[in-house]
Design goal:
By secondary structure, the protein is an alpha+beta fold. It is about 40% helix and about 25% strand. The strands form 2 sheets. Strands 3, 4, 5, 6, 7, 8, 9, 10 and 11 form a 9-stranded mixed sheet that branches. A hairpin with a 6-residue loop joins strand 3 and strand 4. Helix 1 runs antiparallel to helix 2 and helix 5 runs antiparallel to helix 6.
Length: about 375
Amino acid sequence: MPELTEDTGTDFSSLQSAEAYRLYFSLLTDVGKKLLALYAAEDQSGNYESKVIAGFLDKFLYTVHVLLLKFTHSPAHNRQLWIDLSESGFPNHAEFARLETDMLTRDSQLLDIPTETLLKLALLDHMFAKHEESADLLWQLSERAYLDGLDPTRLFLAYTGGELLRQTDTKTTRAYTYSWACLDFETNRPYLHVMGFEQDKDTDPLEDSPTLFRQFLKVVRAEGSRIPDMQILGASIDEALTAIHPKIIKRVSIGPLYSPLLLNGDTDETEKYACTLLSHYSHRTSDFMLTLTTEVLFSESQKPTRGIFSSKRVMEIFHIPFTDEEAFRRRASMVRTNIMLPHVVNQHLTAEDAKVLIPAGARIVTYDEEGDVHGSA
């Protein structure tokens, strides 16, 4: 299998050619489609969380398509896509942040590029005259398509807000769910979140108060754009919003992604081991091994508290089990890990292979040569 990246001696690597970009984005598309199939199956059974996660995965797939338009035909000196090969396999966080910058300057950039119709006519004329495609015209066409595709409602950005949904109320509180996603700055992995929380009824409903809702969104974005331990995430939101009480937070981490296409000189031993098996037993360059980690934090009680300069309020006490080593380490209530890999590779896993590649307690999800996914999230 061809290696796409150059060894830069760092955790980040760039792609080497237009073909490398095509193969890499084909890999990301394949990963996204298989994850979408995994969660879409549960969505059809009425699982709300799976529906939310499937929605973010759909945005991820669309964003991969948009980035493909941006980079594939770009001149070599303009290609700046960096891939994080350190426990990630996904584009650097900055690439997703640049999407927001390009959205701000989109209209002015489009003014500098001829219309799609004119570019296609010029491309035909060039092909008839030179019997070859024009690299410059292809670049301009793809650049225009990229800019036209910058739809903020469809993109997976460095931070992507989701939906606020009102649930069943109690006598004293209103119940809600809210979801968001982010591309973490440190790990360069996608993280998807669903939070169930309550709001005190002595304040205006979030959906009826633009001021309270903006404050809520500001806090969630500030705390949820980074990936602290789950207990810190819940406590930070709880402390920042007096009338809001997080009851359960679910976070899904996607990655690391291992593929022989992404090997370079700084690859760690686990990745080398995984890619050796993939190269030996699988028959497609797009085959991969992917880790999915789901962390859940839930409140087990509340306690009254009073600060030096604040009035009395209640704070959530989150369940952190001392008997679950992994959950305790992550400061979560529970942790579940899934490993997705080709069915043919799973068939040949030995006990020694599993010891290296499959964390204790992890479940295996496989996909076959037809692309069908077997297992549950």
